[in-house]
Amino acid sequence: MELANSLSQEGRPKGGVLAHLERLETKSRKKFEESQGAESDLGSKIRKLRSLRDKLKAEVQRRQARAEASVEPDQTFEVSEQEVLETKLENVKSILQAYRFTGLSGKLTSRGVCVSISTAFEGNLLDSYFVDIVIQKPLRIHHHSIPVFIPLEEIAAKHLQTNIQHFLFSLCEYLNAYSGRKYQADGLQKDFAAFLAGPLQRNSLCNLLSFTYKAELSGQSFPFCARLLYKDITRTLPTDVTVTYQGMDALSTSWEEQRASHENLFCTKPLHHVFASFARREEKLDMNLVY
Amino acid sequence: MDEIVAEFVKRTILKIPMAEMTTILKAWDFLSENQLQTINFRKRKESLVHDLVMLCEEKHASVNDAALLDIIYTQFHQHQKIWDVFQMTKEPGEDIDLFDMKQFKSSFKKILQRALKNVSVTFRDTEENAVWIRIAWGTQYKKPNQYKPTYVVYYSQTPYVFISSSRLRSSIPLLGQALTVASKHHRIVKMDFRSRYLDSLKAIVFKQYNQTFETHNASTPLQERNLELDINMDSRIIHENIIEKDRVQRVTQEIFGDSPQPRLEFAQYKLETKFKSDLNRGILAERKEPLRCLVKFSSPNLLEALKSLAPAGIADAPLSPLLTCIPQKRMNYFKIKDK
């Protein structure tokens, strides 16, 4: 148009060719500058966006760091509730486990209850036995770990249906007594084997013990034969004791006294205590001999 | 050592497999360490046995010593015999049993010797307050036959006795009498319970298997059980079947328990029932007499096999009580009649 204008008057270019070239040059320069401007606009826009991005990144990082630092105080608040519950649960579980030290404890099962009888003697925890009871009418023992020579059927026939407490206490009595007698017999075989002149004769219930042992008195040693009968199997001490001398001659008075006193000892004290006292007497004797 | 004893000693030692020779001889405790050291155990068996017999001769081995060796051999090879279970009963209201092993042994021996002039009885105490008794039977005129002895295993103060099956049926009543009198019981009855595996019979009769109980102290391996479920299941089984499989596992576990089953080899059912048929009456259905039929289940481990039937899908759970009652009833020989 400009060209048209430049040509319009008398149809001659305004200012001539050079002026026309000048005009083209300025036009292109303007265009260039515009594009430069646009470029620089874009550039500055880019720069602006970049700086914004960096700022945002930095902000995110700062916030993350702050969040991590503050996450602990926040989460510990939540964890502590859970921890409290967990410790409570552990405590309750431990108390339930510790119940076995009372000797009689139980756990509910899907069918009824499983009763644990933990036997003990003189503060030593011994074997545990279990009775799995199904709660139905009538009460039924599903299975158990009671040894066959304990009269479980008898005790159950007498008490299980009428008074389960009595049933359990009675069973506890029998089992604790058996465990105690077994502990004494085992103790004699293990710890005082040196006193025995031959094997200890026993039976499943440990209610009949027969053994020969060396009795000492003032340096002399005689073989005594002891026979312990436990007719009451709810007790850990014998009901009948006979101590006899295995020799042919009659016993002197002092030895007769010894024999009688031994009989009494076996009746009133647990086996291993009796033999421990024998051992102590011997030690005293040895000491006397040394000095 | 006379000829008969020497032969008995020789044949007893000959039975022992080479691999067990030193163990069994040590358990016998008849030949001393020194004597055993003079033996070359790497010789051929015949010559080794000859040397051992010579040593026994030096020590004047008796019939009783050889019988003791026989007991030890049998204790190592229990499954070579078939064991029957007998149950003894007392009169109700009797005093507590003060079992005296010495008295029992002497009483038992006396009863047998009073009845039969020729009988040799040997005892060996074992753990758990039990005793193995070996009886070689003779008659008024014949010396005891040492090669067909009967073995008796008795745990003191229990009502059960395990006796090795023997062809000598006539000796059983006398043996029963000796046992009841010596152990202060009144009656003895043969149970329908028999197996080669003495340990399994003992475990069932004394209820010593399946000893897992729910307590607060036990760490019940519930997770393990679930894993078992997974391993048995085919991965292609989808949800509906899982519920049924679960139920089957639960029922099986309730009946059989978690622990390994004691080993029995067979269960036998003698049926004397009328033939029942859903089909149109055939020849058999019209009979009034019961159909006599014998069903025998055999297995290397019968109870484990029964336990796996329902989970394997071969049978419905719960299994027939005729099969599952074997441990509770302490029976594996059944006679089934119509009610």
TrEMBL record, chain A:
Its main location: nucleus. Keywords: Centromere, Chromosome, Nucleus. It comes from the Eukaryota. Pfam families: CENP-O. It is found in: Chromosome, Centromere; Nucleus. Residues 1-20 are annotated as: Disordered. InterPro entries: CENP-O. PANTHER family: CENTROMERE PROTEIN O, INNER KINETOCHORE SUBUNIT MAL2. Belongs to the CENP-O/MCM21 family. This is Centromere protein O.
TrEMBL record, chain B:
Its main location: nucleus. It is found in: Chromosome, Centromere; Nucleus. InterPro entries: CENP-NAC/CAD_complex, Chl4/mis15/CENP-N. This is Centromere protein N. It holds the Pfam family CENP-N. The keyword Flavoprotein does not apply. It comes from the Eukaryota. Belongs to the CENP-N/CHL4 family. Keywords: Centromere, Chromosome, Nucleus. The keyword Nucleus applies.
